[in-house]
Amino acid sequence: MNDILASMSNFNFCYRIVPCLADPARRSSLGLKAALVALHLVYAGILFLFDSDLIEKTKEEPWYTAIYLLLFVVALIQYFVTSCSSPGYVLDAMRDVNEKNSLYRRSSMLSKQPASSKSGSFVITVEGSESERNTQGSNITSWTKLVLDMYPPGTSIRTFTCSYCNVEQPPRAKHCHDCDKCVLQFDHHCVWLGTCIGRGNHCQFWWYIFEETALCLWTGILYITYLKANILRVWWKDAVMILLLVTLSIALIFLLLLLIFHSYLILTYQTTYELVRRRRIPYLRGIPERVFPFSKGVCRNLYDFCFGRSSIYSLERLPTAMEIEEKSRPYTCSDFLTCRCC
């Protein structure tokens, strides 16, 4: 009994020193992060420990090993940067919009200009254009009016109000049950990263997969090079290296498929959630499967994904019926000549 009480007091002492350990979800997330770092160190450490030829090559060509170690460090840094980044939460976007509106009203009052001479509008970044939103003469908040304008006229507020957060969701947003928050342009919840992937961190996520794939491929080549030169010399070393190479190959196949899949999503301007649950999402239900309603062309999609995300709180309205009809139109030779697909 005394031992149990002593162990409980030790746990409480640890929780006071490191408060994040008191949360089971955070503990599991930290455990996964520690396991991933340990896996990286094991694969690279055993390689340098067993492969004497690699050590000799490092002495002759230090740049080769330096580039490999640089990629190793960059991949781990990108992992932690992505895991700590915000996917873009709806609540944060709502606060941002309401704060901008309140600041505008304060500046209008300080300028001592009559309210009747002002339009009562504020400018908010909406993907595709910058438009003014009227926020005067109603009890509805600025955020609600802004979100309403993203949907077709006549849409009820209840149809896009989250039943968990009780906030109005703009198009492409979804509530994540793991994070217990609504995420803008929700893609999926990544267990290994311990966070959601959304509008705010999808680009960082893609770069992390790319760097991890490159590191995994390079490490596999080094393992194969070792086995070619040292096979049947020390059997237990060969067994360890073959076992690690097999698991590394499985991880590489998974990473390559994931990289190709997310590259396809970027080129077509979709999310994993929209692709998998297309028939269940109200605003995608009536659109043909081969039509990508939010796509602006391959080149524009790439540009927006890499450089056009100046704000993680930028919103995107639903396309009109005419825009969907235009995107549904089959490509012709003249369309390719005029780069319609781009």
TrEMBL record:
<dbReference type="GO" id="GO:0005783">
    <property type="term" value="C:endoplasmic reticulum"/>
</dbReference>
<dbReference type="Pfam" id="PF01529">
    <property type="entry name" value="DHHC"/>
</dbReference>
<dbReference type="GO" id="GO:0006612">
    <property type="term" value="P:protein targeting to membrane"/>
</dbReference>
<feature type="transmembrane region" description="Helical">
    <location>
        <begin position="205"/>
        <end position="227"/>
    </location>
</feature>
<comment type="similarity">
    <text>Belongs to the DHHC palmitoyltransferase family.</text>
</comment>
<feature type="domain" description="Palmitoyltransferase DHHC">
    <location>
        <begin position="161"/>
        <end position="277"/>
    </location>
</feature>
<feature type="transmembrane region" description="Helical">
    <location>
        <begin position="62"/>
        <end position="81"/>
    </location>
</feature>
<protein>
    <recommendedName>
        <fullName>S-acyltransferase</fullName>
        <ecNumber>2.3.1.225</ecNumber>
    </recommendedName>
</protein>
<keyword id="KW-0808">Transferase</keyword>
<dbReference type="InterPro" id="IPR001594">
    <property type="entry name" value="Palmitoyltrfase_DHHC"/>
</dbReference>
<dbReference type="GO" id="GO:0005794">
    <property type="term" value="C:Golgi apparatus"/>
</dbReference>
<feature type="transmembrane region" description="Helical">
    <location>
        <begin position="239"/>
        <end position="267"/>
    </location>
</feature>
<dbReference type="GO" id="GO:0019706">
    <property type="term" value="F:protein-cysteine S-palmitoyltransferase activity"/>
</dbReference>
<feature type="transmembrane region" description="Helical">
    <location>
        <begin position="30"/>
        <end position="50"/>
    </location>
</feature>
<keyword id="KW-0449">Lipoprotein</keyword>
<keyword id="KW-0472">Membrane</keyword>
<dbReference type="InterPro" id="IPR039859">
    <property type="entry name" value="PFA4/ZDH16/20/ERF2-like"/>
</dbReference>
<keyword id="KW-1133">Transmembrane helix</keyword>
<keyword id="KW-0812">Transmembrane</keyword>
<keyword id="KW-0564">Palmitate</keyword>
<keyword id="KW-0012">Acyltransferase</keyword>
